[in-house]
Design brief:
Elements lengths: L16 H12 L8 H14 L3 E5 L2 H14 L7 E5 L4 H9 L3 E5 L10 H11 L3 E5 L8 H11 L2 E5 L7 E2 L2 E2 L6 E5 L12 E5 L2 H11 L9 H10 L22 H11 L2 H18 L18 E4 L3 H10 L5 E2 L9 H7 L5 H9 E4 L7 H14 L4
Parallel strand pairs: 2-3, 2-4, 4-5, 5-8
Antiparallel strand pairs: 1-9, 6-7, 8-9, 10-12, 11-12
Helix pairs in contact: 1-9, 2-9, 3-4, 3-7, 5-6, 10-14, 11-14
């Protein structure tokens, strides 16, 4: 098959053959595969790279979101039952809030960066007095972080960052996910780096870190610092033997494995190169598609997840690209308030900007194995049929 007709997918060889061969050798050496030393090493290396004090490896980015929110609740940080969430995000950005019994207020998106709309966010905070906010850095683009931080400070709102599409993106030199109280990441196969399935939570808050370590593993104390473990056993008068099966929080099992941590450690060695390629690819798309919506943000380093745009005839564009063996997707969720899981319990909610994303948004492939020739082919076929909004 020639390069001119090869399929262009949303992800390709995220984990290389060399990495898989090295993994096989490591497995056959008889190393422990469940969570152990590799996980601890991966967490430390990731926190060092991203610039956070703590990192917690999980089995998915979705579990990372759940863990962030559950830790706030179990640590007693939520002063009310009300939270704000990004309307353009992902189901598991929103679902954990609902599952934990919180009242969710969806914020419309910004017209340019597709993050939070500042006017709507201010209105929600003034009217509802929420305790927390979870935003989403859509396709790797930063929200208006300075303004959002100011709103959160004035209204006493805890900021969480869903950075699952933004691994390596920076805002004013600081990596996304490290600006709020906690940040989440996904290592699903189609993301920037992969541990097959997997995710990470980062935080500088040592107390939340300890709560997350316990919640991740059933609610027990085995993974906690000696000081935290001793404090719990003393408070509840638990002896050393009984403590092996004593649960201090209503925990989950959100752990990943050392097998996946081993892959993650090898992926970190190439992450900076991946980020550079994705950024260059975004610039290439932007230069070739001047007549279509272009996502714009104050992102000092853009680790582009995909190239998002709007077209009037989205289904037709999808069918033409599919026929040419080029993958594309809706611009993530569109308006989350128009999905069945929300409508069944919360009812319809009109959000003008998010509705536009919902009706017209489409994203085109971007990953570190896509070439300029691939992008030229995608753009040529895309512009042959796509009608700008």
């Amino acid at each position: 098959m020639t390069d001119a007709i090869k399929p262009i997918t949303l992800a390709e060889d995220t984990i290389s053959q060399q990495e898989l061969s090295t993994l096989c050798e490591w497995i056959l050496e008889g190393n422990r595969l469940t969570k152990s030393a590799q996980t601890i090493e991966f967490e430390q290396e990731f926190s060092d790279w991203i610039g956070s004090k703590h990192a917690v490896f999980t089995n998915s980015g979705s579990s990372s979101n759940l863990l962030m929110i559950a830790s706030l609740k179990e640590a007693g940080r939520l002063r009310s039952n009300k939270v704000v969430a990004a309307s353009v995000s992902w189901v598991t950005t929103i679902a954990p809030l609902m599952q934990l019994g919180l009242e969710v207020f969806l914020c419309d998106c910004d017209e340019a960066n597709l993050g939070l709309n500042l006017v709507h966010l201010e209105e929600i905070c003034e009217k509802e007095k929420p305790s927390a906010l979870i935003l989403c850095h859509v396709l790797g683009h930063a929200n208006h972080m300075n303004e959002i931080l100011d709103i959160c400070k004035r209204h006493d709102v805890i900021l969480l960052e869903d950075s699952c599409e933004a691994l390596g993106s920076e805002y004013k030199g600081k990596k996304l996910g490290t600006i709020g109280a906690t940040g989440s990441f996904s290592f699903y196969y189609g993301h920037h780096i992969s541990t097959i399935e997997g995710g990470m939570v980062v935080t500088d808050d040592s107390d939340l870190h300890q709560v997350m370590l316990s919640l991740r593993s059933h609610g027990w104390s085995r993974d906690l610092s000696p000081e935290r473990r001793d404090a719990l056993t003393s408070e509840y008068e638990i002896d050393e033997f009984r403590n092996l099966y004593t649960f201090y929080y209503p925990g989950y099992n959100l752990r990943s494995t050392d097998l996946q941590a081993f892959i993650g450690r090898s992926q970190l060695k190439k992450i900076d190169k991946i980020i550079k390629t994705r950024s260059d690819n975004f610039a290439c798309y932007a230069a070739m598609l001047p007549d279509y919506f272009q996502q714009i943000s104050n992102t000092s380093t853009l680790s582009s997840f995909a190239y998002g745009t709007f077209v009037k005839n989205r289904l037709e564009v999808f069918e033409v690209l599919k026929a040419a063996s080029i993958e594309c997707r809706p611009l993530i969720c569109g308006n989350i308030a128009r999905h069945p899981f929300w409508l069944k319990t919360q009812g319809a909610l009109t959000l003008a900007n998010a509705d536009k994303v919902h009706d017209y948004g489409i994203y085109l492939p971007n990953h570190h194995n896509i070439t300029r020739t691939d992008i030229e082919r995608i753009v040529e076929i895309f512009t042959r049929v796509a009608i700008p909004t």
